[in-house]
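Record type: ASSEMBLY
Status: queued
Input:
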Amino acid sequence: MSWQDFIDVLMEILTTQTGLFALDYKMVVMWGIGFFFIYLAVAKKYEPLLLLPIGFGIVAVNFPHVPLMGMDAEGKRHLFEIFYHYGVEWEVIPCVIFLGLGAMTDFGPLIANPKTMIIGAGAQLGVFVTFLGVLFFNFSLREAASVGIIGGADGPTTIYLTAKLAPDLLGANALAAYSYMAMVPLIQPPIVRFFTTRKQRLIRMKQLRPVSKLEKTMFPLMVFVIISILIPAVTPLMGMLMLGNFMRESGVVDRLTDTAQNSLMNIVTIFLGISVGATMSGDKFLSAKPLMIFGFGLVDFAICTMGGVLTVHLMNLFIKDKINPIIGAAGVSAVPMAARVAQVTGQQEDKQNFLLMHAIGPNLAGVIGSAAAAGMFIAMFG
Amino acid sequence: MSALKKYSVSKALLVLGLCLTITLGAFVTLAPAPVLASTTQDGGQAIEQAQEDTGYVSRGDLRRNDPDFDWNYALYTLIIRFVGIFIVLGFIQVIMQISGRFFTRLEQKKKAQAQASK
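Status: finished
Output:
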C-alpha cells in the first residue's frame, strides 16, 4: 500500500463518514438560529419547555450526514423522522397535548361567566384577516390558513392544522406561534392601552359565582357534543381536551388525570419540541417564507388582541354589568399568560382591581375559539 | 332579577338567530357550488359526486397568480366561517347560561333542603 493509497482512503473516510467537508453556510446559520432559541429558553426562560427541545432539534438536524431526519438505504426511518412521522404527521402529539391541557384546566371561570365565550370568538379576527393578507404574497390557500392560525396563539392547534394543510411550513409556524406566546407580555399591553380609555380600564367586574362540581363535570361533555355536531373536523383536538377535563372533574380517575397532566404531557412535549425543530433544515428554512411568516404572525397576533378588546367594547353596549376591556386581550388562547398580562395591566391602573379570574374565562374561550377556527379551515381545505 | 336574566337569554337567542340567518343566507346566495363542495369533503362520496357534477377540485393549493384562483370564494367562505365561530361559541354560551341557571337552582334547592332538615 502506497502513501497515496493511504491518503485516498483517509480522504474517502473524511468526506463520506464525517461531516467536515459537507458543511455549508446554511447549516451554520441554522446553528445560530437554534442556539438563539436555546438562549431564549435557558437565559430568558421564554417558553423553555418547548423552545429548548426545538432549539436543540434545529441544531441537531443541521449537520451533514447525521441520521436523524430522513431514511436509510433500506427505507428505515431515522430517529427524529420517527418522532415526526408518528407524532406530528399522524397528528397524535397535538391531540395528546390537548388531553393534558384538559386535565390541567379548571373551566370554572368560563362556566361562571359564559358571556366571555363571545370574546374568544372575537379574538379570532386576526386569524381571518391574516389569511386574506397572506394570500397577496402568493401563499396557497392551505398555507395561508396555517399561517393565519398563528394569531390564535395556540401551539398544539397551530401544529395540528399546519401538519394537515401545509407540512412544509410546520417549523416556521410552530416557532412563530410559540415565540409570540412567549412575548405576550411585550406585545399585548400597548395594544390594550391604545384601544381603551383609562376610565374603561378602571372598570371593576362583579365577583364570579361559585360553580358546582356537577356543573364542572357536565361542561366538557356538553362542549364535546356541541363541537362534534357543529365542527366535526376538530373533534380529535377538542374531544381530547374535553376528555382530559372530564377525567379531572369526574374525580374518579385521579391516576389517569395525574398521568395526563404530568408524565404524559412531559413525554409528548419532548417529542413535539424535537420534531418541530427537526423539520427546520437549512435547505427548507432559509428562504423568504419563514421571515414573512414571522412578520405576519406578529400582525396576526396584534389583530387578534385588538379583536378581543373591540368585542368587549361591542358587548358593553348591550350588557348591564360592564366588562373591563382589558380582559378582551386574553381572548387569544395563550393560557394562562394572556390572563396574567390582563391582571398586571389592570393593576397598573388600579391596584385593587383583580382581573385574573375574569380574564381566565376569555382565555379558555380562546382555546375553544382557535380550535373552532382550525376546524373551519380543515373543513375548507383539509 | 329573574326577568333580567330571562331577557338576556332571549337577547342571546335573538343574536344567535340573526347570525344563523345571515350565515345561511350568505351560504346559499353567494357561492353555493364551491362552498358546498368544500364543506362536504369529509363525506367522501359526497365530494366525489360534487366533483363529478361541477368539475370542482379542491382549491386549497391554488395561489393568487393561478388562473383558477377565485377571490370571491376566499372572501365569502372566510366571512361565513368567521361568523360561524361566533355561532358555535354563541351556541355554547346560550347552553351554558341555561344549564348554569338550572345548576344554580339545583344547588339552592339542596341548600334549602339541608337547612330544613337541620
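Annotation: Chain A has a mean pLDDT of 93.
Annotation: Chain A has 21 helices and no strands.
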